[in-house]
Amino acid sequence: MNPSDDLVTDLVDAVGERHVLTDPSLTAAYESDWTRRWHGEARCVVRPADTDEVAAVVRACARHGAAVVPQGGNTGLVGGSTPRGGEVVVSLGRLDELGEVDTLAAHVTVGAGVTLAALHEHAAAAGLAYGVNMASRDSATVGGTVATDAGGIRVVRYGTTRAQVVGLEAVLADGSVIRRLDGLVKDTVGYDLGALLIGSEGTLGIVTRVVLRLVPRLEHRVVALLAVDGVPEALQLYRRLRDGVDGIEAIELIHHEGVELVVAHTGASQPFGTPHPSYLLVEVAGRSDPMDGLAAVLGDAPELRDAAVAADGPGRQRLWHLREAHTETISAMDAVPHKFDVSVPLATLPSLTDRLPEVVEGAAPGARLIVFGHLGDGNLHVNVVGPDPDDTAVDDAVLGLVVELGGSISAEHGVGRHKTGYLHLVRSDAEIAAMRALKSALDPDGVLNPGVLLPL
Ligand code: 2HG
Ligand code: ZN
Predict the structure, then answer these.
(1) Ligand 1 surroundings by CB, under 6 angstroms
(2) What is the CATH number of domain 220-331?
């Protein structure tokens, strides 16, 4: 503890000495994100216990002119919740209150620090489910997913996080609290301030609690890994499944190269005797067994080269592992990956996957390219391993290609500090000016997450 730092003294008053971390061995875990590309030293890390303490922390930081970086489970991939240097990291992990499930409304009120895994378990115990799910569920927190409008693997059925939020509480830059936790599905009184904060990446306020919509818990589930010759065939098969099968919960794309890496890194078994260029991973869920409906469509699909199907929990898990272990496998590679989370209109997806190898090779000769993602959402995760973390040639090239194809530079991970310099490629001057006006209205001194989302 640095006794000469008056801010630290005020923060200790707000949350107690145990929850203000200044020792580098304790702060390190909060200073670097999952990519290892985005890191910086925090002035300190503060761990408030509830909304009042978050407000007191923000007021103290505002008084001392200190910038604040809100952080959830620190599973971000774009430098949106790690410091650049000298900010106070406000970790929301202790706001982990799981409110009672309202089974009539099918809503639950939870704290920002609740992990997705804990929320899933909590909803299941009440006979319901939460519609957002992703590989980082054990660490990713509700607050972070709201702040980034996170997507994940079930968007084709339930939408992104935005579609789940029916109420929200947040601390604004001056320490005031806005609270709409009444759970009203219909309420059209003026500006929807909560909606404004969803996807604002901690730049307009710090989300502290939310009311979330829950969905029916569907017991009958089938997961299928479907081998195809390439992306155009994967899209044709997707169209066939969408038109012919009820209850599709996930439509994911992986390729041979990614599967090989996952198998080598995690020791998973090969899904098929003979490898295929690409695979669709499909999950279908319903109130009755979806197997026959799925089999009927697959039986008539000329694109299908091979299929592995599982209805039992461990079998489904084995198939999902081949998709979900991509991120950890890439993180374990020697170089720090350049990660892109892009979306394009479905019709241009084949052009994107066709042109990416050449574009990446041109910008980063010899680099390794791994592509996978949420095919049903037109959202691909493009990972490039090879170039130095500070070398942005491949960033320019990949994002330039995506924009040329009518796509977005951020489908679900957010802009963070990675992509502020590319914002103008996908938002007009008028839109950026309106965003800046909102930012200065709600955070005139630029206390909240400076350098994230909007360029400094
Ligand atoms: C996923 O879909 C995540 O698994 C991470 O969005 C993507 O590691 C990535 O590039
Ligand atoms: Zn994803």
Answers:
(1) 135, 327, 339, 381, 383
(2) 3.30.70.2190
